[in-house]
Structure formats: C-alpha cells, structure tokens
Amino acid sequence: MSTAIDDELWSAIGDPTRRTMIDLLLSDGPGTATSLSRRLPVTRQAVSKHLAVLDRVGLIHAESAGRERHYQVDEAQLARAVAQLSAVGSTWDARLRRIKRIAEAIERTRTNNEGE
Amino acid sequence: MSTAIDDELWSAIGDPTRRTMIDLLLSDGPGTATSLSRRLPVTRQAVSKHLAVLDRVGLIHAESAGRERHYQVDEAQLARAVAQLSAVGSTWDARLRRIKRIAEAIERTRTNNEGE
DNA sequence: GCCCTCGCGCAACCTTTAGTTGCATGTTGC
DNA sequence: GCAACATGCAACTAAAGGTTGCGCGAGGGC
Question: Residues of A with CB below 8 A from B28's CB?
Fold first, then answer.
C-alpha cells in the first residue's frame, strides 16, 4: 500500500552509490562529478550517470560554473524522500506490532487450554 | 557513513516488487509463490526469484507443506531492516536541519550588512 | 491404482542498469 | 596559443528483474 507513485524516489535512493553520494553532498557541500568520484570507488563517468538520475528525480540540482558543474542537494525533495522512508518503516513497524499482539493472544489461549 | 555492511538489506527492500511482497506477507499472512503472484503484476517465476533473495538475506523464511512452500516474514530481521531505514532517514534529516540553520545564519549576516 | 491437476524448480532468453574504457569538446591559466 | 583539466558522448560488459517453456513430484477424484 505504502509504495505507489514514488517508486522513482525509492529506486533513486535505493542504490548504495547514490546514497553515499547524497551523504557526501550533505556533509561536504556542493560537488562535481570529478570531486565526488575521487571519494568513491567508481569512475567519474559512473558518478556522472548517478548524478543524472538524482537530478531527474529532483533530489539534486546542478549549476554550471565555467567548465565545472556543481551539484547540490535539493533540501525539500530530500525531506520528501526521508518522509517516504519513514512512512514505509512505520507501516511495517505497526504491522509487526499487530502480529506480535495477535501471537501473544494465541499463546495465552493455548496456555489456558493446556490443562484440559 | 550510515550505509556500510547492510547494503544487502537495503538492496533487498529497495526493489518495489519485494517491498510489495513483504507488505502482502504482513497483511495476509504466510503465502506461496503462486498465491503472491496472483496479487502481483509479475509471473510466479519472478516472485520465486524475489522470494529467494528475501530468504537469502533472512527477511523471510520458508516451510515446506506437501507440494506447497509457505513463506513468512522473519519479524526480528524485518525490525532490523526498519531500523536501518530510519537510521539513514534521521541522519539525512539531521544534516538537513544543520544546513538550514547555517543558511539562516548566513542570511541574518547578509541582512545585517545590507545597510552599508 | 490411475490419471489429471496443481505448485514448484530449472534453463534459456530479453531488457535495463551500474559499471567500465576510450575519445572528442569546451575552459582555464600562463 | 597551448597544456591541463572537467565534462559529455558512445560502445561494451556484467548483473538483475522479467519473461516463456519445460519437466517433475505431490494430491485428489474416480
């Protein structure tokens, strides 16, 4: 139920390299494909493709400065993504708690009838 | 920083079909590849592969009953996964707040110096 | 007991995506 | 003007999600 139209956001942040890139952009501030690739175990071209993906879903946006292209996180969009994450998390959490409650109820019933 | 060894868990729940499958197993209780495929837009074989992935990372476990194979969610492992999710979420959230605070401080400085 | 059905697993194949290498283009600084 | 550097584009490989087709074992009528 929780996942529907926002699969794009999920698949964007689902990739480990892209998650690390977002981490880097948040902790070190705006960066380029080259600067990010120096801190990642992949080539600049791979980073460039990921930047394109993140840009397309709006999680980051670029600004050209001469021969460099500076990318930075779009705060509002990332906040939306985080909201999606915690939504799914809390949905599952709620269901787990419900299941546990039912299991305990059954356990109680079983224990009560054991003396028959 | 947040993502390291647990990339397996992430990639397991990163797939939209697998997320839906977990949803179904939680809401409808244990199910088979066939029963799940009836409620999903993919074939039984695709579902079967996803079940194998989820089984491998321990998010679900199977139980053979005659010719059927019943899968159900491993509550502890899913709880762990949910924890990972919210960990990343709150990390990003914290960084976003920090950035916002800094941005506001800069804005204040700029506004103060505007009268020069 | 026999057969028909159903659920499953295996194998071959297609498509997308993350990754690579190689090359051409545009900027900067001296 | 030229060397150095950041980028973009193209071709290729590898892995993953998906499909179809097949063969097999377990169950349920008759």
Answer: none
**CB-CB contact of A75 with B100 (8 Å):** yes
* Locus of tokens 């996964």: B81
Q: Which residue of B has its CA nearest to A83?
A: B89
Kindly report the backbone phi and psi dihedral angles of residue A43, in degrees, each rounded to the nearest multiple of 5, phi listed first. Answer: -75, 165
**B53 burial level (CB within 10 Å; 0-12, 13-18, 19+):** middle
C-alpha A10/C-alpha A5 separation (Å) is 10
Contact check, Cβ <8 Å, B95/A26: yes
Residue nearest to nucleotide D21 (CA to C1'): B45
Other Cβ atoms closer than 10 A to B9: 20
Tell me the pLDDT band of A103, cut-offs 50, 70 and 90. confident
Distances (CA, A) of B4 to A77, A89, B76, B84: 24, 19, 20, 11
Tens digits of residue pLDDT in A68-96: 999 999 999 999 999 988 999 999 999 99
Unique residue bearing structure tokens 């890139």? A21
Confidence band of B2 (pLDDT split at 50, 70, 90): very low
Please name each of the domains of chain B with its CATH number: 3-115 (1.10.10.10)
